[in-house]
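Hey, I was hoping to borrow your eyes for a little while. I've been puzzling over a protein and I'd love to understand its fold better. The fold is given in discrete form, as structure tokens running alongside the sequence. I'd be grateful if you could look everything over and explain what you see. No rush at all, and the record is pasted right below.
>
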Amino acid sequence: MPATDGAPTKLNLGCGWDHRDGYLNVDFQDVHEPDLVADVRDLSMLESGAYTEIVAQDVLEHLERTDTPTALTEWARLLEVGGKLILRVPDVIGVARLLSAMPYVETHQVLLQNLFGTQAYTGDYHHAGFTELSLRWALHEAGFVVEELVRVDDWMMDAVAVKVDSIGAFEPGDLPYLSLANARPQGAGAEPTPLDKVAATVSGALPGSIRDRARAAWHPARRKLVERGVL
């Protein structure tokens, strides 16, 4: 399936119900009604080097950990040189930091759900997690240079990586998100927030962004599958 004239030159992999205009939306479950039903680890029906952008948000953690190199190499094949890969993955250290800062049952239940998946239906299990270092290494090995990497909501990482025609030695550079003791920097030049201040700030309450994300992942997904007779 080459990217012919008029066809999307951007891919949205593991789209679920997040269908995006201007993208070829791909998912392995036809219940999601994607443009293409396929395994994102093997997209041999798509033309090499034909795409300018790949979005794979909340995808890699659903694959077995040993399949990370397979998937990233396949996505690199599809991108043109200079094409961008946009990822979102769970940050194991970020989750651990929040768990350490907030010793409350509800908080732990939601964060562990975020780490391991809702497990509400086939495919919504997490088999892998990442740290800043492991994600940078995996992208490097697949032929990508990391252009941007930020922590989101203190427990996820967003990365933008660019496919290059040749890759040098692995040089991870500064790794601000490896510290369990510190929160993410709140801007350029900002000092990290000490863990005890994070705990004091939340005062036992679960951050809304984390709670809402977990509920959004569970309830609509399960409801749609029940409506379709899958569950």
